[in-house]
Model the fold of this input.
Amino acid sequence: MRKYDIAHTLAKAIFGIATVFKPTKVFGRENIPEGPALICANHVYNSDPFYILTAFPRKERVWIMAKEEISHWPVVGSVLNWFGFLIWVKRGKADVGAVKAALKALKGGEKLLIFPEGTRNDEIGDGKTGAAMMAIRARVPILPVYISSERGLFTPARVCIGEAYLPFTEDRKATSEDYQAATDVMMEKIKALGREALP
Done:
């Protein structure tokens, strides 16, 4: 077993125990496709990636794109660096290295989690075109996911997994307008999952 597999299993186990105290309800697991996919979700808290990670079956290996600042946090940063399945992104500039690593994971048949808004928001905001661009370039489906902002001991976090879809199917090179249109569709799908998840 590779270090990645060990770290992935360990992370799911640790956070799985944590969700006993902060439970999670998962909807739409049947929508998770075989093979590579770009998982695109809204972003409310720093813990969101691990709620989403544990929503996927144990056999699924998911890479996570996260802001590089977290890697410098005491203890937490060291643990996450050891896990090895996070791709750190330097915010505020075009991080070519992070994009290359993400595309390599997708083209290698892996799943990758990204938060297209680029930052945390209580309400779903506008998405940046980077996520759609990577899905289109790697020719993989986007898997929209909504995670609720309400969570606690008596209010389980709701992770809603939508249907995977190809964001661009035309037989030509995508343009910046195509990336924007694909981003708008993606964000609307995430918002629609949020509306469906309302109690």
The beta strands are 24-27, 37-41, 62-67, 86-89, 111-114, 142-147, 157-161. The radius of gyration is 16 Å.
